[in-house]
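Worked Example 4.2. Consider the chain below.
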Amino acid sequence: MKRWPVAIWLAGLAFCIWIVAAHTRINTDMAAFLPDSASPAQQLMVEQLRDGVTSRIVMFALEGAEARQLAETSKKLARALEASGHFSYVRSGEQALTPVERERLMRYRYLLSPATDAAHFSAGGLQQSLQDSLQLLASPAGAMIKQLLPSDPTGEMLALLESWGGTGSGPGVNNGVWFSADGKRALLLAETKAPAFDIDAQQKVGDDVRRIFATTRTSPEIKLLMSGPSIFAVESRNRIHDDAWRLSMIATALVAVILLVAYGSPRLLVLGMLPVASGALAGLTAVSLGYGTVHGITMGFGVTLIGEAVDYPTYLFTQRAPHESLRQTLQRIWPTLRLAVLTTVFGSLTMLLSGFSGLSQLGMFSLAGVLTAGLMTRFVIPEIAPARLEVAERTATQAVLARSATALTRLRWAPLAVLLCAAVYLAVQGKNLWENDLANLSPVSQKGLDMEHLDQSLRDELGAPDVRYLIAVQGSDQQAALERSEQLAPTLQTLVRQGVISGFDLAARVIPSQKVQAARQAALPDQETLRRNLQAALAATPFKPDVFEPFLHDVERSRHLPLLQPEVWHGTPLGSLAQGMLVKHGTGWVALISLRGVKSDAELATFMTGLHDGNAFLLDIKGESNKMITQYRDQSLLYSIFGVAAIVAVLGFGLRNFRAVFSVMLPVSAAILGTTALLALLGIKLSLFHVVSLLLVLGIGLNYGLFINLPASDEKERRRALFSTLVCVASTVSAFGALAFSASPVLQAIGGTVALGAVLSLVFAAMWAESGR
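Applying the procedure from the previous section yields the following structure tokens:
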């Protein structure tokens, strides 16, 4: 016994266990499956998806009780959530703005108000403002007007409170809090401090919110509903995580049963599963070290390794002749087994070098796992296998397989016919074959669909920003970006009047550009001029002149205030909003304008085209993501071509015979095109993950072709080769078939495609087998 292979294996195993247990972190950010070489607009889109102001919004609804109880619970919940430390702000309608925000709005109101100009403070302008105030004093808002009037007769503070308090286009108020239009739900709006895709942090936020709700609700009948990007992200992570482990266990059990039946020995079953476990650990370790985190999809991909890596010891055990030792069997089949490992490795290299983080992870996992399993089968298994190795003969099954394989060779032209017909059909279908919607990469169940409906419903009721559309205004620095967004704002009012959008928000409303603030400050009259204008305006009103001394003082103070800086809002909800909408991007800055209630995509796009402003563009999150998916697919297909060329070169070097290479490549090529055509006929749109799946079919199918065409010295040896290939197919179909039942379309695509492709690869390989002619 050679001890060094076993020692290396044990040391490597211990290292992998340590890395996986102590240092591996799981993430489910689907942005990992977006191209690394995306355009600036796409990069900005990914940044907004991960940590944009709209991505951190969480919407809450309380239902199931009468309005009074819902309102009381809403108030208690809002205060408790504010105290939790998880949120930048919590709005429930009970108090639109914090006391700090109100004080700062009051202090800087003339620098913030778009109405601040010289005419506004003229005698005529002041007279009109006073007349308006007289009418408002008799309205329901009279108490607030009376309180503000001495210091703010022009109504700047009230206009700002309405603007930032959510009145107007927002939800209605009942019992002091926001309610839905039908009065059945109390509504709250919050923004988490943690980014939407910090899934661990968002999981804790959700857990704490539910715990807080349980202690604040005033009736056990009241139910809490939550929605927002972070809620979807947590749901996706949990679904992918649960799927990965559940399906891994199911696949392992199925494969174990198949191998136990094939081997007839529990000891051999355990021995045969060691390369699988070692390969999975090696794959996770390689990804963790290479990328820092392991994506949940990569974890699910571990199921696929069961179907691949288990093949290598299976070929070794089931092809062993009664008189042979394992070393002798390895010596006989190793050239073919080596080719099987190398072709799969080269298929993995195609994914590894693709330039996409998520796909590269899958490639790294597969490459490391398959290579480890192959090397362990070659060097470790013979050293630790028992001296007396008993494998069930299964002669009756082998005889049936031999007769079936011989019968199939009568249809040896079928693979070529399928290849040609499928190629023509797919060429005719063209671009109609492909699914380019990124939304379809998320786990979608009936619960997920219900969440989407709830999200849209709450977004409409609350007047929350649209998560799909943003207008990005570029500038060389903060001030340039702010100034350009301010120039765009008046034209956006046209869209509001036309009903294309219900409203919009921009950072310049909270932090006007220095240029605009300076102009507003310059428009403020000195105290003597303002006093004369005010006296003239008061002549036609019942107000006493001395009532407005606070107003004169505030205007004079505003004339000498330092211009408002972002730091003024630090630590407030409005500051968080402004910070999220004014972001550094590349070497410059971008001021984002969030849109509410987009009614017509086409009219919005037409409006943006008509602006002819090269510094402003519409960021369509859905459109840009779909465009990236198309780029991803096309580039993946290109890399696949290079991968196939490399595999053919490896086969040519290993087999040194063109006819042998053709005999191996034709069946798997027919299986790949046949699988693709069949999926299309079933109405299944092909995603970029079907491309990954077909690469796996290529590696697996080549293995079947290699072993079915393995030169045999007699009929018994041929039968053993057929039997071993059948066992491998059964294991592969079981492992990948389990994935087809996943809730994640990604894992579904991989599982169903590979299972179908594996079966077709075996059938076509048997039809075209050289040994059967």
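The domain at 3-26+233-265+280-295+303-361+371-384+412-442+624-772 is CATH 1.20.1640.10 (Multidrug efflux transporter AcrB transmembrane fold). The radius of gyration is 34 Å. Compare this with Example 4.1 before moving on.
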